[in-house]
Amino acid sequence: MRIGLILCLLLGMWLAPAGVAAAAPPANLVQAELLADVATIQPGKPFTFGVKLKIHPGWHVYWKYAGDSGMPTKIKWKFPTGFEAGEVEFPIPKRIELPGGVVNYGYEDEVVLMTRVMPPSDLKVGSTADLLADVSWLVCEDSCIPGKASLKLSILVDSSAPSANEKVFQTWKSQLPAKGQASDLNLKLADDGAFVAQVNPPAFAKELTWFPAPPAGAGVEDASPKESTFTFKLAPPAKKDDRMGFLVAYTDETGHRRGVEFVVELPSASK
Amino acid sequence: MRKILVPVTAFATLMLALAIQLGASAKVGDAAPPFSLQDQDGKTISLADLKGKTVVLEWFNDGCPYVVRHYKEDTMDATAGKYKDKDVVWLAINSGAGTSSAGNKTAAEKLKVNHPILSDADGTVGQAYGAKKTPHMFIIDKSGKLAYAGGIDNDPEGDKGDKKVNYVDKALSELADGKSVSEPQTASYGCGVHYQK
Asked: Phi first, then psi: what are they for B175, rounded to 5°?
């Protein structure tokens, strides 16, 4: 009996993994860069400003809603007085499936997060505008590492705004979802408290993928996408007048990924 | 005794496995799924032995920055400490692939974890509870029902100051007063549980 016990212990020690001896993660997991789609800015003429994130292979950063784990990528724009900037526009993300049914929504390799900017019409031609962005992210592979960058792009104010970085912006603007009509997404509340969202995609749309954007402070649970139907629950439960976004991505007839984003009011049990 | 124990354990495991196969994880209000796991000192801790106590389960991964921050800020000890005379048992569970008592012992020493860390290497218990991230918190009430599932607090970045709400503290306080949990389901945040492939 005792010999057996000793043998078991020795075997256990030999078989026990030596802790997950992870190599130190590579430096520069995320490289952030500011880009504008114009070479110079013209007073009163809108342009697109972007943060390009280059992500180390195998790692990913997150969409505006991260999914079962992770943390959304955040950008705080800091523009000179008189500049108006819109919200951060997130291109269609990837659905990243991890073992055990953990689902993340995010980006691998590269992404450009954008915003539309309107410079004031009384900007002085010949001056320089300093456009700043504080970016924060969580980049994950097996481990997760938070990161941030404070970036500045100084851009000349001129009487014209010739385009710049055309290829990058053409690619990434095409990955911004189109705005869908709320009436084109059907959202019901089932008896068990689950929500059922349904769309009617055109026949040519293939590889439909659902990306839920729940109300602030809420998480999506028990997400179950099935083609054009998406069943899910919210924690905490929805409140009256809560609204929620759904990005439905698909592959079109030319093989390109496209997306439509719907914002709808959540049905409540009292109705 | 041994003759009976093996088939009973096997049956419980089978039922658990069946539940997981059906995609069902425990919901608030359900009977909390049973478990019997080894802590970092090799001691077996079973939910069945904790009947009549309030049990807090904390999904754990010492490599996750959110978990590390909470241990640096002493969140777990401070919260558990408030209820040490109220029959509350606080258990961490590691459902990461390759987790072991030895690995969890190292983690406990590194982060100064003052409660058991249970090894759930095949992820069965994590899946039974629907644990997706670390930290993911669950509270089992004295009657053995799942009374809370969600985040430790509402403060993923750790910057809410006095606007921070410690959901677990609030739930434990309500349960200690014989009340039901007012916010039984909240959003949680953290790194994904690294279930085995």
From this structure: -65, -40
